[in-house]
Amino acid sequence: MASPVFALNHHSHRGLCLPSSASSSSSSLFSSSFSSRSSCSPTPLGLRSPSHNHNLFFGFADYSATRRCLKLRVFWKESEKPSSVEMEAISAPDQFDQLLAQPQPFVVDWMANWCRKCIYLKPKLEKLAAEFYPTIKFYYVDVNDVPQALVKRGGISKMPTIQMWKNGEMQAEVIGGHKAWLVVDEVRDMIKNSLTK
């Protein structure tokens, strides 16, 4: 992730409550204070965005008493869930076996690259995956790119088919031949019901 760099003039600090002198001080926005120094050495800090009180920056500050300039290199704290989570591909039976052996439940979208409904549904499922991230992971299987023995293990006859797997067993499935938003709603309900079992 790119980290923005801000050079803030000592006298025009735009409401960020920077210290008005080089003496040690603190403000409502800074979690650390600054002391007089002749060289620019990094000082850890955290500050609250004035326009977004729920978000925090974290980074380092360099304060020069001679140049009267404060340089901030800040990073956004990733405290919010993503809006979309890319589904990972299952490309081999042994990969599928490894997932079955793990305690974490997961969702599999059985699809095909020639299936228009599958292609249209995939990004919508990735948005749904963000709702359950990181508790539930979403995967997809292109039935044309894997051995047919794996497809038979899923009992797949139509695409797209979305299945919920838990404790090494398939818990429920949704066959998505209808409108995408209805499929997403059904998959959401399927996951919630499976988690309560």
Structure, briefly:
With 197 residues, the protein is of the alpha+beta class.
Descriptive account of the structure:
By secondary structure, the protein is α+β, with helices and mostly antiparallel strands. The chain has 2 domains: 5-76, no CATH class; 88-195, Glutaredoxin, CATH 3.40.30. The protein is built from 4 helices and 9 strands, in the order E-E-E-E-E-H-E-H-E-H-E-E-H. It has helices at 93-101, 116-132, 148-153, 180-195; strands spanning 5-9, 42-48, 56-64, 69-76, 88-89, 106-111, 137-142, 161-166, 169-175. The strands form 2 sheets. A 5-stranded mixed beta sheet has the order 5-7-6-8-9, with helices on one face. A 4-stranded antiparallel beta sheet has the order 1-4-3-2, with no helix packed on it. A hairpin with a 7-residue loop joins strand 2 (42-48) and strand 3. The longest helix is centred in the middle third of the chain and has 17 residues, at 116-132. The chain starts with a strand and ends with a helix. 20% of the residues are buried.
- The fourth-level CATH homologous superfamily of the largest domain is Glutaredoxin
* Helix-and-strand structural type: alpha+beta
Number of strands: 9
Q: Can you summarize the main beta sheet?
A: 5 strands, mixed
Radius of gyration: 26 Å
Widest beta sheet: strand line-up: 5-7-6-8-9
Terminal Cα span: 39 Å
The general outline is globular
Overall domain count: 2
CATH architecture of the largest domain: 3-Layer(aba) Sandwich
The CATH class designation of the largest domain is Alpha Beta
Q: CATH topology of the largest domain, which one?
A: Glutaredoxin
The overall pLDDT average reads 74
Helicity, as a percent range: 10-25%
**Strand residue content:** 25-35%
Count the DSSP helices. 4
Poorly predicted parts: 1-78
Q: How do the SSEs run, as a string of H and E? A: EEEEEHEHEHEEH
